[in-house]
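tool_call: predict_structure(chain=1)
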Amino acid sequence: MASIVGVHGIGKYRYFAAAGSARGAAEVMRDKWNRYLHAGLGGGVPYAGQSYVSEVAYYAHLLREETPPATRRDLRKMDPPSQLVLAGWMEQLGGAGSGAGETLTGLIHRFAEWLLLKLGPRAKDFAEDFCPEVAAYFAGADAAARVRSRDAVADAIRRNKPKVLIAHSLGSVVAYEALWAHPDLSVELFVTLGSPLAMRNVVFERLQPLPAAGRGRCPSGVRRWVNIADKDDIAAIPGALKSRFDGVTTDEKVNINWADFHTARNYLACGAVNEHVRPFLAS
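tool_result:
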C-alpha cells in the first residue's frame, strides 16, 4: 500500500492515558484509521488488517502541562485563554448572539445551552476539547506545546516519507505549520479534513507564517492540497479554504452526518477522501 501519514485532531489525549505512551497511542490510532479508511476503500470487503496508514503522528499529550483530572472539562469553567478562543469561535457560529452589557461568563453560559439544544451533547463535548487545545497550541509563537507538536508531526513525515498526508481538525493546523517550519519535507497530496485553518480571530491570524494581505499560502513542499469539510462541521468555519489560502487545489463540501459532524471516522470513510487517495494505493 502507499505510505500515508495521518495527523489526528482534538480530544485524543485519552489514547495516551490508556496506552501510557505516545507510541502506544499512535499505534491504537493507526489501527483505527486503517479501519476507517477501509470502510470507504475496501469495496465491501471485510477488514482483515489491511494497512493504508504507516503512522498517525501523535501530539495530544504535548498540549498538556500535567495529567488532567478524570472529570470532563466544562465550558463554563475554562481558563481565560480558552474563554477567548470560545468567544472568537462563538462569533463565527453566531449561536448565542450578543447581549448589551452581558459578561463573557454570561455569554458562555448561553452558548453552552445553545450548543446543547441545537446540536446535542456531541457538540458541547467537542467545544470542551476544542477550546483548551487550541488555546494551548496558540499560547505563543514559540510556546513549547506548539513547537513540540509540529516537530512530532515533522518527525513522523520524515520517518515515513509519505506521498499522502491526511490531517484532521486541529491536526491540519499542526501539519500546515510543520510543513512550513521544516521546508525539507514534501508530500504529493495534503488532505485537510474538517479544518479550522481559516477561522478568523481564532486560528487564521495566528498562523506561522502569518498570512499576508489577508491570504495564507500553501506550504512549498505540497504538490496538491485538497480540503474536505462537512456542511455542518462547526470547526470548519469557513469550510472552503480557497477563500483564505492560495494554492488550495480543491475544496469539497460533504454531508457525512449531521449529528456526528466532525469525527475522523466519518471523514475517512467518505467517498470524497477515497477519490483522492485511491490513485496513490499500490496495486
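agent: The two ends are 7 Å apart (CA to CA). Proceeding to next step.
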